[in-house]
Write a structure and sequence with these properties.
19 strands, six-stranded antiparallel β-sheet, alpha+beta
């Protein structure tokens, strides 16, 4: 193929990738923009369906791009020199796009599908974050600024009325007063003195589940105060449900255990930069993921990991906690993530398969996680420096997951793994925590089980070791191989023994079906031992009762979608809606 004839298919292939990306982008925005209408109509089942539909878009359009490129390039599709030229031409076409980083990640996804690249090939992929030639003045247009002597009820009322709802507020004046009073108190606590303040409010509204969130910041003296206003559409109108004004509170709202927001973000990097200003401890990758760009979030996660591994002292280590039967888990102490590799074989009584485990992770990906399941990112064909693995950890991985992990010279190749945010296993947390923190954790452990049940998720293994505690004290589940739909479980009471000896027999005296669950048996492993037992039972003894589980199933069958909030109950505004 001579140079003149090569250029034509290269241009056509790049154009096909760009076209596929723009189709993805249009579909993404179309679904996202439905969110306001769903909220106004209180169409919660439609909102959930939109969230699931949007998750499927990326793969569908990458698949289409890969097929088009194969058709266009034919025998040249595996020539790296061709792809290097395509990358250069793609960079020219996308330069200056406000969503440049997303377009680059999409290109990477196509190349990796074609080549199944081990590690990263910088000649044909975008390895580093592309720097902007100059700051874009339009970035500031994503938020509106108000410079005032004080944030009063009139300003709050005006801001709320600027939102283009087609339904009224239930108690606008009262909400405006409550919000303004709380903001004023927070400013006084942060600055100690009155003075002019700047309120920056993002123009886009963040939608998730039954909530709509206004997000901004208050700049007063040297302080930057986060501002998150969750709005709910109650039966009698829209209400402000809470006023969240700490980085920790905002971080929970944008946490890694929630379904992704639907928010109109034509300038995603500018939006992420703004969010980072109010959540400085939140990794960039988690911010991208939280607004629905999980594939680019994965790209940012990989880049951050590679930077950590460049440090001479970087060493992986066994993850804390009990060894699991399905996953081999390790971590990098300087990096707040765990790496989970599926073992080659699973010991009894596990009867899962590799495919079934992967299906469970996909189940978590597409379900509403209600703040109780850790989001996982799936990676293929990663390579790490062998120097980063202690001998005992590498030997363990080769022994239990040799079909996935191999050593090639100075590289460790991992064919497939999942990453999750690192949390403290609940059983270890309870050993070290003081009495109050431990009590809060076991109560939230029960809340987590109930929240998941209300979302039609039964955790199966409800052992303490399968749950973890986040930096903000929230309990989540991170073990997925036993998850199933709660609506498909058959909850039963244990039949009485036929003869007294039945109670001491090794096998049950009654038939147990695959979907049978006996809540009264939960006491042996669900209820924490020792000093925490009483606290747990006072709050959650109903988990041991058949009636609780059947009641949840009835509500699910009736189509009920429960309220689950990413903030403390005591943070909710007190009001009397007429």
């Amino acid at each position: 193929m001579n140079s003149n004839t090569t250029l034509r298919p290269i241009a056509a292939a790049v154009a096909s990738i760009n076209a596929a990306y723009h189709r993805y982008e249009r579909g993404f925005k179309e679904i996202t923009r439905r969110a306001r209408r769903r909220f106004e109509r209180r169409d919660w089942s439609g909102a959930q369906a939109d969230a699931t539909e949007r998750l499927a878009l990326y793969k569908a359009h990458v698949d289409a791009a890969v097929a088009d490129v194969h058709d266009i390039l034919e025998d040249a599709v595996m020539e790296r020199t061709v792809w290097a030229a395509m990358r250069s031409q793609h960079a020219l076409h996308t330069a200056g796009q406000p969503d440049l980083e997303l377009a680059e990640t999409f290109f990477n996804s196509v190349t990796r599908r074609v080549f199944s690249t081990v590690g990263v090939d910088p000649a044909i992929e975008y390895l580093d974050r592309t720097a902007r030639a100059q700051p874009d003045e339009q970035d500031a247009g994503i938020y509106q600024s108000h410079v005032v002597e004080a944030v009063d009820a009139d300003l709050v009322r005006r801001l709320l009325l600027e939102l283009p709802w087609s339904v009224p507020y239930a108690q606008l004046d009262r909400d405006a007063v409550l919000v303004a009073e709380l903001i004023a108190a927070r400013i006084r606590g942060a600055t100690g003195a009155p003075g002019p303040v700047t309120l920056d409010l993002l123009r886009a509204v963040f939608y998730r589940n039954k909530g709509a969130y206004l997000v901004g910041r208050i700049r007063a003296a040297t302080a930057t105060i986060p501002l998150v206003l969750p709005l709910l559409h109650a039966e009698r109108g829209i209400v402000v449900d809470a006023v969240l004004m700490t980085s920790d509170e905002a971080s929970v709202v944008f946490g890694f255990s929630w379904t992704y927001f639907r928010v109109d973000s034509p300038r995603p990097r500018a939006l992420v930069d703004f969010l980072g200003s109010i959540m400085p401890l939140k990794p960039v990758n988690e911010l991208y993921i939280s607004i629905g760009y999980n594939k680019h979030g994965k790209t940012e996660l990989y880049r951050s990991l590679m930077r950590h591994l460049e440090e001479p002292e970087a060493r992986f280590a066994f993850a804390e906690g009990d060894e699991g039967m399905v996953m081999a888990v390790f971590t990098l102490p300087s990096f707040n993530v765990v790496f989970k590799v599926i073992k080659d074989t699973f010991g009894a009584p596990k009867n899962a398969t590799r495919r079934l485990v992967m299906d469970k992770y996909h189940f978590v990906f597409v379900r509403d996680r209600v703040g109780r399941l850790a989001d996982a990112q799936e990676f293929e064909h990663l390579e790490f420096p062998v120097r980063c693995f202690p001998d005992d950890l590498l030997a363990y991985l080769l022994r239990v997951a040799g079909a996935t992990v191999r050593v090639e010279g100075s590289r460790v190749i991992v064919r497939h793994l999942y990453t999750e945010r690192r949390v403290t296993p609940l059983n270890l947390y309870l050993r070290e925590a003081d009495d109050e923190a431990a009590r809060d954790a076991v109560i939230d452990y029960g809340n987590a089980i109930k929240d998941l049940a209300a979302a039609d998720i039964f955790t199966g293994d409800m052992l303490l070791k399968n749950f973890g505690v986040t930096r903000n004290g929230r309990v989540i589940c991170y073990d997925y191989d036993e998850l199933c739909l709660l609506s498909e479980c058959r909850f039963r009471r244990v039949p009485p023994p036929i003869v007294p000896e039945d109670e001491f027999a090794a096998e049950p005296w009654f038939h147990v079906g695959e979907q049978d669950v006996f809540p009264e048996e939960f006491r042996a492993f669900l209820v924490p031992p020792g000093r925490l037992r009483g606290s747990f039972l006072v709050a959650h003894s109903d988990l041991l009762d058949l009636d609780f589980w059947e009641g949840v199933q009835r509500r699910l069958a009736a189509g009920e979608i429960v309220d689950v909030f990413p903030y403390r109950r005591e943070a909710r505004l007190q009001r009397n809606v007429p």
